[in-house]
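The records we work with from here on pair a chain with its fold. The integers have meaning only within a learned vocabulary of local backbone shapes. A complete example follows; check for yourself that the lines match position by position.

:::
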Amino acid sequence: MAGPALAQKPLSIGPLELDVPVVLAPMAGITNTAFRRLCREYGVGLYVSEMITSRALVEKTPTSMRLIKHHESEVPRSIQLYGVEPTTISEAIRFLVDEDRCDHIDLNFGCPVPKVTRKGGGAALPWKRSLFRDIVESAVRAAGDIPVTIKMRKGIDDNHLTFLEAGKAAEGAGVASIALHARTASQFYSGHADWDAIGELKSQITGVPVLGNGDIWSAEDALAMVKQSECDGVVVGRGCLGRPWLFGDLQAAFKGEGVRIQPGLGAVAEAFRRHAELLVEFFDGDEGHACRDIRKHVAWYFKGYPVGGNVRARLATVESLQQIDDFLGELDWSAPYPTEGVEGPRGRQGSPKKVALPERWLESRELASGERDTLRLAEVDSSGG
């Protein structure tokens, strides 16, 4: 399938030069080293780690230390941090810098998950203006020459929008780029992303790149977002679940090439097998752990393809690479790309919901003394990595 041509200029994030203005969105339990390496095999871009809690990193928990590992082929190395307390985030960043663990740091201000927002973190945090500014400023100072970026949402809900004010504050604090998931926290992943909001932010931020995130299910979607919002690049999340080759499509699209990757079932099976193999390496040779992890990817990889329910069920319970090989061997590898059922939305969507917040959080844009205590506890409660 040919798409419209658009020769997009490279993206500069501080000293980092990206030939293609594409970033892999951090996704919990998904964007580990294995998945990042797989995506990189299809196309270039900036591939960000899953969210890592700053307190856990300061404590050097086993989980956090595994999550910050990068394969030697991963250049540049990108890590996303979450935290609600400036000092702790600074300590985590200084550790990353001193130990030469990364080339880019992204701060999470967009997570809508209740266990994060009810403690004042993620998408809830920019509501507190001084706290947001203090975190970003301290992170930029601690990072030194390492570029710091932020990823945020429009706000808590339509009555409590924060993205324009937060964007300007982040630009003033010295971030290298700003990414906006064009939904509110209350939308979660439901409805449609508001690409006009990305354009509004872009019109207000003139000193650093603005990236758009939300509802990029194809290369054509990415081109459409850039055209509509005039943003400098795109951040891709759920659209690449079970479709690592989307980054090949995006690379071709932004270089003005019309060719798109439409893999037959055999190519999908090979990608699935490769993903499992990389997971074994990520989990230090623990094949059982890797197979348990790959199970959640089965529905995404084979969505729309002629794979019987029996084979899907068995793939979702695999315990070894040999079992994966046996089950994949039962598929018709010559089956072509089906188009229908493969493209379009994938992953969790949910429905709009009231955002879980600390008590009386919305009463003031500044932190009360009791709320500072809540945030300190949140750092401790989130120390599992």
Summary: Residues 1-5 have pLDDT under 50 and may be disordered. The first helix runs from residue 33 to 40. The chain has 16 helices and 13 strands.
